[in-house]
Amino acid sequence: MKFHRLHHILLCWLLLVGAAFAQAPQTSLSSKERKDVFEYVWTVVNEKYYDPKTNGVNWKEARRIFKDRVEFAQTDAEFYQALQMMVSELHDAHTRVRDPYKRYLFDRLEVVSPGVTLGEVEGQTVILRVTPGSDAEKAQLRPGMIVRAINKKPIEERLAEAAAVIGKSSSERATRMLIYSQLLDGLEDTEVLLWLERPDDPAKTFDVKLTRKIYSSSVQVITRQLPSGFGYIKLSRWKDPAHDQFKRALEELRTTPGLIVDLRDNGGGYPVEVLNIGSYFFPNKVSFGKFIRRSGKASELIASPSSFQPYTAPVAILVNESSGSGSELFASVMQELGRAFVVGQQSCGCLLAATRHKFKGGGELLISEFDYVTPRGRRVEGAGVKPDRTISLTMDDLRAYRDVALSEAEKLLKETKQPTVESK
After folding, report:
1. Stretch 384-399: mean pLDDT, rounded?
2. Which domains does the chain have, with CATH numbers?
């Protein structure tokens, strides 16, 4: 299949119509408009969802149940939440509803955050990352600090509330990631109060008030040569101009004896970028699997060679539970073809292809219209990418800023012989 035709057919992950949506979001819907939007969302899923059996969900029954919730919604926020809860019944991380505000931010490549990312480590809710330059960093918050309450409500209650909104997603890992993201969800310039436990002394706790601010989510490609001599490239998302930046990074690292591609916390992007970057590792065209429509018709993904001389040294790929979609496509194929080994945590298990459908009021429905299988016919949705070497995140490593997965990848690269590159 020709490259430009694939781009047109798949639309994919978070489609190319974003530019047309980049306008100030609307925020008010009449009762009739809400009913119309509800019927539209339900019908699109009913007619276009990649699985005609809707993942085993009785979709007609879902319409009956959530129709009442929509009619009783007092605000637009409650309405959009009801829509999201309905589509979450499909247990699919790609199929979801964006309210006008979130759709607007997505189109502008922006996110709202209080400057920290939360997650679960050793059964505790902790700070995983602190955004550089944020108020959280200025307040000397650190990875590994345990969160005991949010807005004066115990963390156990906040987790239960978030779980009720999120429901179940593509996998336990996807569900967990969405729940922790929900904990800090809010509008720009609003505040969130965290009650934290100091790592060095659990008896000492403190409150910190953070203001949610807008941060860029544009593509970042971080490149460096490690003291070991191996190259390192961290990619934040699969979106143009990622392939150009990645190509320049490879040129800088061409003489390195091995390369580590860090896809941790990379939630995905456009499949065309995956194919572009994938082509940098093979001398000939290579199948990257297939997208499959509801009808059963398949579209093969082909990484075609270009004038760029491929990188031929051994490759390690780092993933974690937040590595999803395009990152799983790349990692699963590179692993399956024997071109790279994977290190870290089992990935999200969130690999379908979604299209975007705007509706009245400025919101949109993302719906999975394509399933995916690897070149050898394996589904990644739900299962994720299983590392060749699993590295669990520990509290001690997090607090000491110790990157055990990176160290393990370097160790494996030293033991790896030059790969035999498969091609098609």
Report:
1. 97
2. 3-107 (3.30.750.44), 112-216 (2.30.42.10), 221-349+384-415 (3.90.226.10)
